[in-house]
Amino acid sequence: MSRLLAALFGRLPIGWLQLTHSKGRLAAAVAGVAFANVLVFVQLGLASSMATATLRPYDFFNADIMISAQDANALTEGGNVARQWMFQALADPDVVAATPIYIGMMNWQQPDLTLALLTFGIDPNNDAFIAPDIVRKIAPLRLQNGAIIDFNTRGLSPDVAASIRPQSPQTFEVSGQTVTLFDTFQGGGGFGSDGHMIMSDQSFLALSGGRSAGAPDHILLHVASGADPAVVADRLRGAISDQSLRIRTYAAAIQQDITYQSTQRPTGVIFGFGVVIGILVGIVIVYQVLSTDVADHMREYATFKAMGYGQWFFLGVVLEEALILAVFGFIPGSIIGYSMLSGMREITNLPIVLTGTMAFQVFFGTLAACAISGALATRKLAAADPADLF
Amino acid sequence: MGNDALKVAGLNHWFGTGEARKQAIYDFDLTIARGSLTILMGPSGSGKTTVLTLVGCLRDVQEGSVQLLGHELHGASRPMNESLRKRLGFIFQAHNLHESLTAEQNVMMGLQVHGLRGPTYTQAARRALELVGLGDRMTYLPQNLSGGQKQRVAVARALVGNPDIIFADEPTAALDKESGVNVVRMLKELGRARGTTTVMVTHDNRILDMADRILTMEDGRLIKDSGSLV
Questions:
Q1: Residue-wise pLDDT tens digits, A141-153
Q2: Quick one: A91 and A172 in the same domain?
Q3: Nearest chain A alpha carbon to B79
């Protein structure tokens, strides 16, 4: 390793030799960096799962434009939209199809737990708005109170989920009425519900006392082939007299929802802070390790300074140490972080994933944190006369 | 460049600030010829080490002129100081070896500062260690060397870069008589062979007879100059 680093740096690998000279201290330093890595990994995993969970219901549909109430910051939030605006939107020459969607929570009461299901009421006859992987399962929705359920619903055992088939449906009660589950689809637990359920708009309205067919949660539109959804949305904003409505492209609605979840919802803000705190903890740990190391070798560094070595040399040595700590800390940190996220995914059924991009971000973030800490640790050395350091 | 390795005129130095400010060096004048071995003596606290660090580029000159190898140190820039330090060799009372480096690697540091790399410089480091009698201790870490052996590694490190001037602060303090005499003899021979100048602070009376010149300091002042003893 010494020879490899010597070839890499073109000089004696002082940082490596210094770190490995005190194995106990090296182990503690690596453990500290790994700990900071785990913190960041877990927070990033949770933050990304929030984005994934937010995005997932949008994937159930296929639309170009979405009309929502003014306070509909998220798919599941906000008031209703008068269905009359759907007809007005259809008057636009570039709007070729429209459908209302209805959203609400329904509970599947089981003996020992209650599953909270985010339920979508859709028009099964307007299947162009349904995602391809779901559309082939929606035929039973035409039956009264027929539904399909999220295979990954938290609390729903895989065996039970697998047994829900058209030939072996399962039933449960909502508001005193029987709901029949005919099939499953791939969704995933979220932060606000255990899973998802899709039924016809008629079944949804029948099971949701007080909801009116004339007041869906959102209206989805398809534009003509070749038409720009942004341009059509712009035109609709001028044509629809209710200026309080949010008329956005479907892509913009998704993006705004993610931004809202990560910057305004408590969970998003907490996860964001978690990432920042993880990085700060990492910087503090590495700074502590490196500054202690510099202090402990001050006489030797002063001797090198007296021999004519300049500040770049010392910065290079400390950055070499920072690089080594970053690499050595990242390896166990990523393994532990990945294991913890996998465990959390198993327990919560949240769509927690550790992507290559995240690992890349954490590694280079660690490297940057280590480099900053290293640069800070050499400040005293830079300012002092060698004679004052002996 | 003249024949003087070092020329000091009107050097004054203070430590501390405000009311705690105390003068340590008073109107110090000195000229040292190239290739000579000069010993600086005096009681503890007389300012010997302070003078050594000032003329050796290890401390900023506050007042007066110090011309080292023809370059004025008063107001010198950091790059100038770093460049001059590469032409010097230091031997400290505390050997100041790097604890994580072997004897050979410590000596290599004296070459690496000049940008030297590769097998040639490894060979040079080994030769320097053999010169101080440590050919069989090259891969030893300082913790496994005796005090005298550590000091000899420090001497090898100072000599390996062929410095123009060697500044040595009590280099024989940790050595037995024979080792001490050997180290000073080696420095003297270098002066003869390579024209290396040596300025040495010492209390060690055993080596005085090898000096070309002996200076005595007291209370921050140069009180006695033997002149050339050669």
A1: 999 999 999 998 9
A2: yes
A3: A310
